[in-house]
Each structure stands twice: as C-alpha cells, then as structure tokens.
Write a structure and sequence with these properties.
- There is one protein chain.
- Helix 19 packs across helix 24, helix 21 crosses helix 22 and helix 22 crosses helix 23.
- The chain folds into 3 domains: about 150 residues, Alpha-Beta Plaits (2-Layer Sandwich); about 100 residues, no CATH class; about 325 residues, no CATH class.
- It has a 5-stranded mixed sheet with strand order 6-7-8-10-9. Strands 2-3-5-4 form a 4-stranded mixed sheet, covered by helices on one side.
- It is about 45% helix and about 15% strand.
- A hairpin with a 2-residue loop joins strand 4 and strand 5.
- By secondary structure, the chain is an alpha+beta fold.
- It has 27 helices and 17 strands.
Length: about 700
C-alpha cells in the first residue's frame, strides 16, 4: 500500500488552460509586455529543476532531447515500427528512449543521460520518494549531508547577517579533521567577478559563526538568470507606467546581484501598480518545498484581468475593514491600518514553477505586508479546470450530497479563495521590536486574550515569520487562512457580495464546509507514516481543520468506514449542516484566536505544540486515521496535468499558441517553449547539475574537500 501513492496511472487527466479571450482583448503593446514577461518566467522556471532533486535536470534534458528529434506521434510510430506494442510504448521507457531517433543521432549523449537519471527516476527507495533533509528525503536546497541542525544553524547565521534565505542554497563540506564548512550560495547572474558595490557585495566573504566557518558566495543558476534578465529588459520597453518600469528595473538588479532587498523594492513598486491589465510577479517566492521552510522556489506568472469576477472581489475589498472586525481576536492583534490591496480575478497566460495555485497573496515579505500592503489574485481559468469534478469520481461523499456538491463547489470555492487570500493571509499583526529597541505595540496595555496577561514574546529585529516558525510556518499560515475563509463565509454580507442569498447562500456555506472536511480526509495521502511528517502544506492545514471540527463533537462531523461496491474498503463523510453555526463556528472561533495570538507573539513553542498536536496522524479510535489513510490511497484520483499555451513573436506581433488537452499536447507545449535554444538549455542544466553532483552522495557519504 505504501508504494501506490508514488505510482501514477498512464491515463492521468490532462486539461488545457484557456486564456484565448483574455489574450484577444490585449493591445499590441500589452501583448509584447506579456510575451517577454512570459519568456522570463519560463526561463526562470527551469531553476526549479535544480531546486528539487539531483536527477531532475537530467530528466528534463533527456526528454527535451528525445522530443526535439521526434514529436510524440512520430516517436510512437517509430517505437511501433521497431516492434513495440502499444502497451510496451506506454511502459518500456528505456526501450523507447534507446531506440529513438535522438539516440540514433547522439547515442553516447542519450545513453549517458539515461544512465544518469533512469534508475533514480523510478527508484522507490524510501529516502528518494519525497522531499526532506538528510536521511528523511531528498532536496537540492541543501547538500545531501545537511541535517535539520545544520539548517537551523544556517538560519541563525543568516539572521545574524540580516540575509534572507529566499534565494539561497546551503552546501556543507567536511574537512580532513571532520570539521564542517558551510557555503551559503545566493542566486544571481554575477559570480565572484568584481562588480559595482551593492548591498550584496559587502556580504560576500568568510565568517566564523558559533565555531563554524561560513562562506557567502553567489552565482547560483547564473546562466538561467541571465536569460531571465534579458527578457525583463525587453519587457521594460512595453511597461504601461513608471511603477512597472521601476519594478522591472529592481527585479533585474535583484537577479543580477543576488539581492533580496532589490526584490523587495521591486515588490513595493508592484504593490503600487494598482489594477494593471497584465499582472505578473517573478522571483524566489514560495517556501513550501524547502524542508526547513525558508528558501523560495523560483516562480513567475503572467495573467490578464477578468473584469466581471474582479468586480466582486473589489466589493469584498471595500468591505474588508468591516469584516476584519468580525475575526475572533482583539483589535490590538490586527494591523494598525488596513492597507487596501488590489484584488483581481486573473486568467493565467503563463505560470512557471512546480505547480499552479488557485489563488495567491503576495509578496511574502513580512515587513512589506505589515507596512506597505499586498495584492491578492484569484486565478479564474485555473479554478475552472483544476478543480472540476466528475460525479463518478467523487469519493467519500454520501450519494445525496454529490449533486449539490458538484453544483456549488465552483461558486463556494470562489468565495473561499477570496476570503482565504484577502482576509486570511491579509489579516493579523506581528508584534515586533526593531533594531533600535522600539516596539510596534504598547507593552503596557496590549493583553494576550488567551492568558489575560501582558505580551511576553515577540519578533526581534531580523526575525521573520518563516525564519522563526520554519518547518511549520507555511502550513500553519495556510491553516489560518483556510479557517478565516470558513469562519467568514458564514457572514451574510460576504455571500451577498458574491450574489448568493437565501437557500443558495446556505448551500454555498454547506458545500464550502463539506469540501474542507472532505479535503481534510483526502489530505492523508500526503502524510508519510514512516517519517511522521507531512509533504504538502495546504493538505496538512486541511487535516488540522478536520481534526478541530471533529473535536467539536455533537455529531457535527462523522466519518464512517464502509465497503465499496467493488468489495474494497471505503468511507463516508457526513457534515450535519444544522450544526455548522451552533457547533462548528464556536470551535473554529476558539482555534482561530489561538492561531493568531501565537503567531502575533512569535510563540514558537506554543505554536508548535498546538499545530503539531492537531496534525498528528494516529490509529487511535474512533477515526483510526492511519487505517483511513490506506483507504484514501486505495481510492485516490491523481491530480490533473495542466497544459499551458505559449506566445510567439512573429515580426512585431505576438501569437498565442494553444495545445490539446493530452499528454502529447503537454509535451508539444514544452518542446515549442524553447524552439531556438533547446540544446543550449539542456547543456546549461546538465552542466549546472554536474558541477554540484558531488553534494548529493547521501548523508553517509559527506562531501569532503577544500571548503
């Protein structure tokens, strides 16, 4: 059973992202701006391969080489002509690759790539199955010999130098005497060569920290970021206003120098660029996939405003200050001033990264969010395809809930995403003491509502939410935002904003809560019992909410093991809609207040105890979650793959290239994404991966040598 979650079926669902109408409405200048930003995002997205696993860059290079020589249809016909059956073509990858046109043209290179990544690609060795540090999993944010203790030491070092971890990786080498030497490497175009002074240049040196040598270097992903910068320079020529131009100039500075401070400055201009037709953001953004929770994965998106849905979100923003007062914590735990954000519904043209979310609240820099504000976006065309559900594939619901669920899941999710992003991530204050010793709260009068006492803990200068709460920060914050969405969707004003009243409003509430409860059960797929850890922040968050609501009791939620019509284990989730307000809301209110108080006060010990307590997965009755997890794995539906379009410059016109919703369409979209520099990118990726390959020999084979 344990291995089934790592095996994907050949008939996995594929959907296409539709942005034709949104693109059609763009002016020629807006199209050029969007095109060059998209190119920057796609180039930068290749860095994710180097942030994931040692073999990922080689897999990409191998597949790129394979499909440059033959498109999917040609490869299939070639394989069948070579004597493979249809089934073998789907399952015998080594035979397909080594018998391909690419292998015939360049036998040594293709065989070499296969030998480098083939075995690792299919390995189900426990350590190689999921992300983690040292013996717990695989990651290329850290060398293979790094432990959680190394990660903590490095974070303390970074905090001491006022350096952000977002654009860094950590490499440890052990000298002949067994002493560790650490390299903190910043992502940048520039390396060790002399350059004009910037805030980064003075940091590039050797340090001694708590008895350990640290060296701060830069130049990670340099040739990839060079291509990002070139496209951002071109995009500047088509910027709609000075905010966009200055934003791009700072992003260019950030990626060139390795400066997160420059990226923050760019993000300030981005926040000030209200209501653009073409929206975008790019950089080292989300820290979900760093096992320590501090390093950002490269991400870039380009999208076009959907005016109809955006009008609803604008009305929600207009009501935000009033709705914030409904949240269950004292006013002193809320920001001094609500900085009215942009909130738009966007149709995505490009989203480069490891996945595409339904909504985003950025930037993630705590200091900017507290003092400058933020933006919210809901990705409408992603919601339309990624979360669509067929009745026959709906698991764990009662039959009499299924039709209602299908009818209202989309609308209820619009409401949840809006509340989650705007009033979830957008709410709450962090209590901070700055470098001069000044506090942003009144120590004498602010009272902790959980203890009735004055505030005992806060964030010191240089500390952030991510650095302080590290491994639980992302999931804890997603849980807080999801809980705010559930809590505030009960407010009639919210539902009126989205056009729901009376019985329809009640159905939206019910399906929103039911969806969260079902999601909490489905989340068990992302728990690893052997390592006692969660592999996905949002899933962990939804399981925690399920636990909170189950703890409320009084029959609010029941999970009943059953036997399916196929004779295999199954389960049914039931939510008593008559008890959502009387039982569910008070339970969520208590939980939300505790989450916010512990976050505001930087109480890591209290926060960990609360969150990890609810996140624990055991086989204790009555739920027996470990047994239920086996059922979830048995019934799981693989996540859809999403095919994205490309843009192509033809003279001074930008064309939109769309692809069919199939595996072949997905492959073509990638093959045509880099039509002119495919071979160069393959070489860049393999060279960068090979240069650092020695760092991933495994925790028992610590890299040694000159540090």
């Amino acid at each position: 059973m344990a291995d089934t979650q790592y095996i994907l079926p050949n008939d996995i669902g594929v959907s296409s992202l539709d942005c034709r109408e949104a693109f059609r409405l763009l002016s020629p200048t807006e199209r050029l701006y969007a095109h060059h930003l998209s190119r920057a995002a796609w180039y930068g997205g290749l860095a994710v391969l180097l942030q994931t696993s040692p073999e990922a860059p080689y897999i990409y290079a191998l597949l790129s080489r394979l499909f440059r020589a033959q498109d999917p249809d040609q490869l299939r016909q070639h394989a069948l002509a070579e004597g493979l059956t249809e089934e073998e073509y789907q399952e015998k990858l080594e035979r397909v690759i080594l018998g391909s046109e690419a292998a015939q043209q360049h036998p040594e290179e293709v065989r070499g790539l296969w030998q480098t990544c083939g075995e690792l690609m299919f390995s189900l060795e426990p350590r190689l199955r999921h992300l983690g540090l040292g013996k717990e999993g695989i990651t290329t944010y850290f060398s293979g010999n790094c432990t959680m203790e190394d990660a903590k030491l490095a974070q303390d070092f970074l905090d001491s130098q006022n350096l952000s971890a977002y654009n860094t990786r950590l490499f440890k080498e052990v000298d002949g005497e067994g002493k560790p030497h650490y390299e903190v490497r910043l992502a940048s175009v520039l390396g060790s060569e002399p350059s004009l002074d910037s805030e980064v240049t003075s940091k590039l040196k050797s340090y001694e920290f708590r008895g350990s040598p640290f060296q701060v270097t830069r130049g990670d992903y340099a040739p990839i970021l060079q291509k990002v910068v070139e496209q951002l320079e071109k995009a500047k020529a088509y910027a709609a206003n000075s905010h966009q131009g200055q934003m791009l100039a700072q992003y260019i500075e950030s990626f060139t120098q390795g400066s997160i401070e420059a990226h923050k400055r760019g993000s300030r201009f981005w926040i000030q660029d209200k209501g653009p037709i073409v929206e975008s953001y790019i950089g080292f953004i989300e820290s979900y996939r760093d096992p320590f929770g501090s390093r950002g994965e490269f991400e870039g998106f380009v999208a076009v405003v959907n005016k109809a849905m955006s009008a609803k979100f604008e009305r929600l923003v207009a009501s935000a200050e009033q709705l914030l007062k409904e949240l269950p914590w004292p006013p002193t735990f809320e920001k001094d001033k609500f900085l009215t954000p942009d909130f738009t519904s966007l149709d995505v043209l490009t989203f480069a990264g490891s996945g595409i979310p339904a909504g985003i609240n950025i930037p993630n820099y705590d200091d900017l969010r507290q003092t400058e504000g933020f933006k919210n976006v809901s990705l409408g065309n992603v919601l339309a395809v990624a979360y669509a559900t067929q009745r026959e594939k709906l698991t764990f619901l009662e039959e009499d809930d299924k039709d209602l669920y299908i009818l209202w899941k989309g609308p209820s999710f619009d409401v949840q995403v809006g509340l989650h992003e705007l009033l979830g991530h957008g709410s709450g204050k962090l209590f901070v003491q700055d470098e001069k010793g000044a506090f942003n709260f009144d120590q004498e009068t602010v009272i902790n509502p959980e203890t009735g006492e004055q505030i005992q803990s806060w964030y010191r200068s240089g500390e952030t939410w991510d650095s302080k709460f590290s491994t639980i920060a992302s999931s804890y914050e997603e849980c807080r935002a999801e809980s705010v969405g559930l809590y505030l969707c009960l407010h009639p004003q919210v539902l009126e904003i989205f056009g729901f009243e009376g019985a329809d409003a009640e159905d939206v509430i019910y399906v929103n809560w039911l969806n969260m409860v079902r999601a909490g059960l489905l989340a068990l797929e992302f728990y690893t019992p052997e390592a006692f850890n969660w592999r996905q922040a949002h899933m962990q968050a939804r399981f925690v909410i399920l636990r909170v609501l189950l703890e409320a009791g009084e029959g609010l939620i029941t999970i009943t093991p059953t036997t399916g019509s196929d004779g295999r284990p199954d389960a049914r989730v039931r939510l008593d809609r008559s008890k959502i307000r009387s039982v569910g809301k008070p339970a969520l209110e208590r939980f939300l207040r505790r989450l916010q108080v512990l976050k505001s006060t930087g109480d890591v010990a209290g926060g960990r105890a609360l969150y990890e307590g609810y996140a624990a997965v055991t086989d204790a009755p009555p739920e027996c979650f470990l047994t239920l997890r086996d059922t979830v794995l048995l019934r799981k539906e693989s996540r859809k793959l999403i095919v994205q379009p490309n843009t192509r410059l033809e003279g001074s016109d930008v064309q939109l290239l769309e692809y069919e919703a199939s595996a072949a369409g997905l492959i073509r979209s990638f093959s045509e994404r880099f039509p002119e520099d495919g071979p160069e990118l393959e070489e860049i990726l393999t060279q960068l991966a090979t240069a650092d390959a020695r760092f991933w020999k495994g925790p028992s084979e610590a890299p040694s040598g000159q540090a």
